[in-house]
Design goal:
387 residues; 8-stranded parallel beta sheet; 15 helices; 9% strand
Length: 387
């Protein structure tokens, strides 16, 4: 085999995606779930999404076109549905052969939006079941692929059943929404059964862009002509939205730290994925400052066994966008938090993330052990690979 993109270096990828086809989720309905989840219909992936998906499906069925695509470098080649390995598991394994990543977390892209916000519990938990089975099946034949499932906390008991069943089926991490749900904080004691199951099975919870409230839409009502997002996909993510994507995850993490969830579940790990990382140094200081300022009046803060920033450093791992300065982040917050991610096959991952990260590490003279922590060891701790 010719040299891989990783060039023989040990690398674990904390963020990759499936690009769902129209019936990717709905085709997994059991007879009892039939009709609850409609086929995919969204403009968030850009203009002409259905035509793009159809062309990608037709390409997969065309051996000549597929062979031509496979000859292109995977990381710098076409993105989205047009990428090699975007939605077919056998093809994804071949793409991973070329990339050279030894482990890769695999997230859905659009399918959670087909059910997670429904007011009908039946639809929400049918969607969780269908997605978790689908993700597990996609990854089951390649141990490098680690499927990320989804669990809604709307009903804590149903959430526990979802996690238990998903783990049995092979799900290796569970995406949760970072906002309060049905009037309960994520740190509510009713959710302890979920955290206990995850900890007992060495399965992390993960937060991801799109899993929490973003910028209030009124900030886009300016009197100027409205803009589409950079993909041409309506109101997906625009400049003013970008700075707010970490706000909900910060609130989530503050709750789990201040309300002693991480203290009660010391082996519960949390990944923060595709939300950026430049906010982390200031957030760590804010956590400790808030603790110092308010612990005199709040028993839960008084009962913390170590500084809030230490809980974060012990139990939270954060992936980067390729344009972020990993060298500076390690200097500010230490080597044990940050993780490499390609975001393949999403275009946000760029065409040479390793090159950009290496340049930042070189500029900051980051030593080899800390580079290894970034490229694979922090992923290993998130996923409990040594346990």
């Amino acid at each position: 085999m010719s040299e891989t993109y990783a060039a023989g270096r040990k690398m674990y990828d904390a963020d990759s995606h499936i690009m769902e086809t129209v019936d990717w989720l709905s085709s997994y309905a059991t007879p009892e779930q039939e009709g609850l989840i409609k086929p995919l219909a969204t403009d968030k992936g850009g203009a002409g999404i259905l035509g793009t998906i159809q062309k990608a499906v037709e390409r997969l069925e065309d051996p000549k076109a597929t062979a031509e695509l496979a000859e292109q470098p995977v990381i710098s080649g076409p993105k989205g549905w047009s990428a090699y390995g975007a939605f077919d598991p056998e093809e994804r394994s071949k793409a991973l052969d070329q990339l050279g990543f030894e482990k890769q977390l695999v997230f859905p892209t659009f399918s959670i939006g087909q059910f997670a916000q429904s007011s009908r519990l039946e639809k929400v938990y049918a969607g969780c079941d269908m997605l978790n089975r689908r993700m597990a099946d996609f990854c089951e034949n390649d141990p490098r692929l680690m499927g990320v499932g989804f669990v809604s906390l709307k009903d804590p008991k149903l959430a526990e059943e979802t996690v238990r069943d998903g783990i049995r089926k092979g799900i290796e991490a569970f995406w949760v929404v970072s906002d309060p749900i049905d009037g309960r904080s994520p740190s509510h004691l009713d959710h302890d059964g979920v955290w206990d199951l995850l900890q007992a099975n060495n399965v992390p919870l993960v937060l991801h862009i799109g899993g929490g409230r973003g910028l209030d839409g009124a900030y886009h009502e300016t009197g100027h002509e409205k803009t589409t997002d950079w993909l041409g996909g309506g109101e997906n993510l625009r400049g003013k939205d970008f700075h707010a994507i970490s706000h909900s995850p910060q609130n989530f993490l503050t709750s789990l730290i201040y309300d002693q969830v991480f203290q009660r579940f010391p082996n519960l790990m949390c990944g923060v994925i595709e939300i950026g990382a430049t906010w982390v140094p200031g957030f760590l200081r804010t956590l400790d400052q808030g603790h110092m300022a308010f612990k005199k009046f709040e028993p839960l803060l008084q009962g913390l066994e170590m500084a809030p920033s230490e809980f974060f450093q012990r139990q939270v791992r954060v992936s980067l966008f390729p344009y972020e300065d990993i060298g500076w982040l390690i200097e500010q917050s230490g080597p044990d938090i940050f993780m490499f991610a390609s975001d393949f096959p999403h275009p946000e991952g760029g065409r040479d993330p390793i090159g950009r990260f290496d340049a930042s590490l070189d500029d900051a003279d980051i030593v080899a052990p800390h580079r290894e922590a970034f490229y694979h060891e922090n992923f290993s701790s998130l996923m409990s690979l040594g346990k």
